[in-house]
Write a structure and sequence with these properties.
By secondary structure, the protein is mainly alpha-helical. It has two domains: 241 residues, no CATH class; 146 residues, 3-Layer(aba) Sandwich (abc type-2 transporter like fold), CATH 3.40.1710. It has a four-stranded mixed sheet with strand order 2-1-3-4, sandwiched between helices. Helix 3 links the parallel strand 1 and strand 2. Helix 2 packs antiparallel against helix 8, helix 8 runs parallel beside helix 11 and helix 10 crosses helix 11. The protein starts with a helix and ends with a helix.
């Protein structure tokens, strides 16, 4: 076996014999993936995991048309995958289910809601609008927010529709188009027009981004968090590898190796290869475990392998550059932690990249995290090797550029 490979193999074995390192490299990212995915609704498994089938109970105490309209909207085809509404008459029982954690939200429509809403739009009326009460589960903030947003939109359109009908009615009477006593006959038609105003547009659109050749799919928290946490802890591993290189120099291990027949190039090459193989083993174990245990759909095996090889290479480049520019191991540790966390925040390791501002997504392309996340996201959504050629090329170029810069920096240090 070539000397540099022997050095790399030795470093790899030392790392995987360290129980604390194994917990940080493997167990922690795996556990965090599960925890975050479970918290936000992705319990793992299929491509449809995510925020869906939100259990909601509607207590409709209204005898008029508008209360029934709210119930119809919550049962509409547009919301069938998002909501799981149930109609109940017992408010106490519904709230008891909510307190037990069985529901996300309880919506209570008050008696005479339709009558109060219509009367409150009259210019001469001082009658208050009926208040729709919404009770939510604080343990499920995202799902609760979705329900609250939908009911707010429904009520806003009901108010707008009722106000529009009332305005039309007043104008017809004031301009003598119809007599006041004729309003009763026109009331059903005007009510139908108000109903059409409310139902005219979709209340909420739930879609996933798609690219050419990739099937559309709902957002899968587990499929996103598994590679996301793996990449985050990969950066911790490789930056720690760069720090350990400086620690060996400070402790005298590296200078003693340089006195042996082994060349400096073989020693440095072996250390770099050791960091690369350690990161590769870490990513490989996490990706396989997420597939076998969690059922994350990785798609094309060849594409996953190539992306992983390029990703680890780019991440290793940052670890070696860190060792080349740092004065000592302590400084490397501080800078390495900062780099890992900044890259994670910019790239979307903690929240989906789609939720980040555009300038952050653009700036994040300096990191391997962003390119790796984009590639893995496309693959878990059904993409093929052709869909990840750009991230692959970017990661390979990043690895090469960082390696060249590191070599130049190391030579300047040795002069």
């Amino acid at each position: 076996m070539p000397k540099f490979l022997s050095i790399a193999w030795k470093d790899l074995k030392i790392t995987f014999r360290d129980r604390a390192a194994l917990i940080t490299m493997l167990l922690t990212p795996f556990a965090l993936s599960l925890a975050v995915a479970a918290a936000f609704g992705g319990s793992g498994g299929g491509s449809t995991a995510g925020i869906r089938d939100i259990p909601v109970v509607i207590v409709n105490n209204d005898q008029g048309d508008l209360g029934n309209l709210i119930v119809e909207i919550f049962n509409s085809p547009e919301l069938v995958d998002l909501l799981e509404p149930t109609l109940m008459s017992d408010e106490a029982a519904a709230r008891s289910q909510l307190e037990n954690g069985d529901l996300v939200s309880v919506i209570v429509i008050p008696p005479d809601f339709s009558e109060r809403l219509s009367a409150s739009q009259s210019a001469n009326s001082e009658q208050p609008q009926g208040i729709v009460e919404v009770y939510t589960n604080v343990a499920r903030p995202l799902s609760s927010g979705v329900v609250r947003d939908i009911i707010n939109r429904v009520l806003s359109r009901l108010i707008a529709g009722s106000a529009t009908v009332q305005l039309v009615s007043n104008q017809l009477v004031e301009t003598d188009r119809i007599a006041p006593e004729q309003m009763a006959a026109l009331a059903p038609e005007l009510a139908q027009r108000a109903r059409q105003l409310v139902q005219g547009e979709g209340l909420i659109s739930v879609e996933a981004e798609s690219v050419a050749g990739v099937r559309r799919t709902e957002f899968n928290w587990l499929a996103y968090m598994a590679p996301s946490m793996a990449i985050l802890f990969l950066m911790f591993t490789v930056t720690n590898g760069g720090r350990s290189l400086l620690a060996e120099r400070e402790s005298g291990t590296l200078p003693r190796l340089l006195t042996t027949p082994t060349s400096a190039g073989q020693i440095i090459g072996g250390k770099v290869a050791g960091i690369y193989f350690t990161g590769l083993a870490q990513m490989g174990i996490l990706l396989v475990a997420s597939y076998v245990i969690l059922g994350v759909p990785w798609g094309s095996i060849l594409a996953v392998i190539l992306v992983t090889l390029a990703l680890v290479g780019a991440a290793t480049g940052w670890g070696i550059l860190l060792a080349a520019i740092s004065r000592n191991a302590a400084q490397a540790g501080t800078i390495g932690m900062t780099i890992a966390l900044v890259f994670a925040g910019l790239s979307g390791n903690f929240i989906p990249r789609q939720a980040l501002p555009e300038f952050m997504r653009t700036a994040s392309y300096i990191s391997p995290n962003s390119w790796g996340l984009e590639a893995y996201s496309k693959l878990t959504s059904g993409g093929t090797l052709a869909d990840v050629t750009t991230p692959l090329a970017a990661l390979a170029a990043m690895a090469l550029i960082l390696f060249i810069i590191s070599v130049v920096a190391f030579r300047r240090q040795s002069q």
